[in-house]
Amino acid sequence: MAWFIVKRVLGIIPILFGVSLITFLIVRLLPVDPAEAYLRLSKIPVTDEAVQLVREELGLNQPLYVQYVHWLSGAVKLDFGSSYISKKPVWDEMLHYLPATLQLTFSSIVLAFVISLPIGILSALYKDRWVDHVSRTLSFIGAAAPSFCLGFLFIYIFSLKLGYFPVSGRGSLLHLILPSLTLALASVAVYTRMLRGSTLNELHQPYVLYARARGLREKWVIGKHVLRNAITPLVTTMGMHIGHKLSGSIIVENVFAWPGIGRHFVNALFGRDYPVILCYVLLVTTIIVICNLLIDIFHAMIDPRVRRNGGQ
């Protein structure tokens, strides 16, 4: 088990290195000069002399590989420079906005799981009946509807018309419900279909027939045996969807004015705040990779075959 974890951890290093290199090159090769963007955001007239001074101050006059090594050495120490807009350390700003995004992301995943679990099981138990048809129809609608459309629709109905929830911002639990539901609905379709398929597959396994033959109650067979095995693929998918939620939260955070790193990232994009852009991409990538690592470890703990094959 220890060697399995070590191999997975070591495999993270080249992934993060590759992402950081590609992102750095893309940002540096954009047509907008970072020095000019810095001057405009600082409301300083863009002149040749000012651009030259800023380029020397930011190290942009050095070769590209020297700039990357300098930036990477700082990133390893969690020093991503200062924001062009706020002039504050980028990492401190990310730590300020990150809790809001993580709260929204994980609450949406939990909400999607809570909604999908009964729907997926009922669809499998009542296959091809009206419950199954209704759940599949709702799943398709949830998967097809864009997040920003659902967000504006929820705001119009539940905030403006009914007045049940706040329109925007972050504060109480009421502020969290609509953004979480908007972000969760896209995953409900996937989770429901996956749980339905895995439950149907488990219902045809021999151990279910044996359990029923022994006279066990149907609720015990479903809850104790079938659900335990059917839910394993769903856990894997939920872990892999964390990255999808983090990226999808960009839209939801802007619709609901949720003060997370997604909204902060959009502001950085419009303002050409390159240090924030680089830090955001690397931070989100790291979170995704770590979540996938935890899912691999979880599988290795419950399934020795994964641990044995991964150790080869």
Automatic annotation (TrEMBL):
It comes from the Bacteria. SUPFAM superfamilies: MetI-like. It is found in: Cell membrane. Residues 98-295 form the ABC transmembrane type-1 domain. InterPro entries: BPD_transp_1_N (IPR045621), MetI-like (IPR000515), MetI-like_sf (IPR035906), Opp2B (IPR050045). Keywords: Cell membrane, Ion transport, Membrane, Nickel, Nickel transport, Transmembrane, Transmembrane helix, Transport. It is a multi-pass membrane protein. The keyword Transmembrane helix applies. The keyword Transmembrane applies. The chain crosses the membrane at residues 9-30, 104-126, 138-160, 172-191, 277-302. Belongs to the binding-protein-dependent transport system permease family. OppBC subfamily. The complex is composed of two ATP-binding proteins (NikD and NikE), two transmembrane proteins (NikB and NikC) and a solute-binding protein (NikA). This is Nickel import system permease protein NikB.
